Amino acid sequence: MSDQYQITETEHLWIPLPDGRRLAARMWLPEGTGPFPAILEYLPYRKRDGTAPRDGTTHPVFAAQGYACVRVDIAGSGDSDGRFDDEYSEQELSDGEAVLDWIASQHWSSGKVGMIGISWGGFNGLQMAYRRPEALKAVVSVASTVDRYADDIHYMGGCLLSDNTNWASQMFAYMTRPLDPVLRPDWCSEWLGRIEDLPFMAADWLRHPTRDGFWKHGSICEDWSAITAPVLAITGWADAYVNAPPAIAAKMTGAPAKALMGPWEHRYAHISQIEAADFHGEVLRWFDQYLKGEEAGADSLPDYRVFMQEFTPPSPKNVPQNGRWVAEEVWPSPSVSEVVWPLAEEGFAPDPQAGTARVKSPATVGQAGGYFCPGIRIDNERPDGQTVDDAASTCFDSTPLLAPMELLGRPRVRLSFSVDRPVAQVVARLCDVAPSGQSQRITYRPRNLCHDDSHEVATRLEPGKRYEVEFELNECAHRLLAGHQLRLALSTSYWPIVWPAPEAAEITLHLEGCALVLPERRVDTEIAPQAPAPARDYPTYQAEVLEAPWGEAETRVEADGTQVLESFDSYGAARNASHGQLVGSNVRMRYAIHPDDPATAQFDCNWVFEFARDDWAVRIETDSRMTCDRETFYLWRGIKAYEGEELVLTREWQEEIPRGCH
């Protein structure tokens, strides 16, 4: 698709809100006779510097095809007025509705607006559509969720994720960054006021350990019929947010919905380090259809387009994956049926078997799991070979497959069990084991055994009592080759992705009630997958690079047996070519745990940001920590903020949160 329009870029403009506050925005407008449909991206990540490199690769391409593109910072972020209160808050969403109204009322606007975003912007695009603002006519949501409790960085399967604190520490650092003095003469008072008023999000989120109204707010699965704007949902298998696209394709009833799942990490597909693809073309086809009203082919896409992975030697690096593109015309698909594999002492059996199996793991199981959401660090994020974790888990292996087997969907694990502690969790992993013995993780998911199926009720377990549970693993698409084995690995820990239970529990499986339920895909004739095209050329960010990004990670065992994972990522330093601001940042993280005592779990994080222009310079150092004992979580954070060499603010916060059934 060739460029059609020249573009006028406005580096900064104010969008007024009904109560007098203003939100800072950046805009790309096609030149020529309008009006034009618009594309909104709405984030707290700072359009002036934070997402400027990525924004420069997307919105100019869309604007050249006849879209007015607007990138807006939410209240209390970047140079916008107000105070940040929480992710996806009522303030954020009601302000977003006002922004949509403003865009629709501009002389250059056709009145039809689409929203696009990855992660935060993917979340609030769906959440805004759930509210049905008149101007919002289509959404492209990347790496998002339909259930804020079940599938975000806070909890998974009712288990606390360590990213609850990791992400809170990152947002703490992000939201302490200064306003730009060029745009905000009041920058210093506003900057220091923002820091003083920042919510302690790690503690706030921990106060909601079950799926209550706090998490139901912003979860579109509460009413699938509420969304009437067409939704294209995209992510990649290396991302953390794999469950939303197929759920949207299957359950949205009020408008067209399609899912696209590639091999990508937590990035827009055109800038993926794993395998770049034509993200722009996918977006433009969707918006051409539903914002311009052109026959672009979006409505005839298969419901579910999928990169079907095959065994690839595991590596923490973001390397290309083996596989091929497939598609399902409708989802759920008649090509996928459930196959039940009963667990047995020797692996799997044709029928339920008597007997028991023991699951008790050292707290260090999970060391080969990689980072929760690859695409956030520089690299070295992916799951490595699973052999070390498999050896410390209870494994059930199939015999070598006589023919290939394809899995598409969410496998389920059915367990009949008793346990010796009142609080316990189980983690299930599916692995593809090659004839060489290499083990590649296909999918996984933890389950808090104290929770009911709704995750709204948590009850301490009675040791020795027999219970039953059945739970889904995360979405997968994987083709096991002939000669390979399918492995179900069960453990009672998965550190550092999952925060461990307070005590080392032992689970006894009663095998006659245990099974693995697989979504097996069998297709006689494949339909055309309509795979994304290779990435097209796109503009890049104009900046003077002063330090290139780099990162490293190391795992070591200390003298007392404590296992420590340390990582350092420098995001480099660069000077913006258009407004001259220099920005540099780095982050250091440390996870530590003793294999014999899950209550020794500890997370530490240090962020450093530096900003400069001419004789103005700011440096921010933030530190966050989480520790625990068997009854309590202990949270601490601190900040030091400098203007030039002067320390202008230092403060510490701390909270203690009862663990309950975590």
Automatic annotation (TrEMBL):
SUPFAM superfamilies: alpha/beta-Hydrolases, Galactose-binding domain-like. GO terms for molecular function: hydrolase activity. InterPro entries: AB_hydrolase_fold, CocE/Ser_esterase, Galactose-bd-like_sf, Xaa-Pro-like_dom, Xaa-Pro_dipept_C, Xaa-Pro_dipeptidyl-ppase/CocE. It holds the Pfam family PepX_C. Keywords: Hydrolase. Gene3D superfamilies: alpha-amino acid ester hydrolase ( Helical cap domain), alpha/beta hydrolase, Galactose-binding domain-like. It comes from the Bacteria. Residues 284-537 form the Xaa-Pro dipeptidyl-peptidase C-terminal domain. The keyword Disulfide bond does not apply. This is CocE/NonD family hydrolase. It comes from Tritonibacter scottomollicae. The lineage of its organism: Bacteria, Pseudomonadati, Pseudomonadota, Alphaproteobacteria, Rhodobacterales.
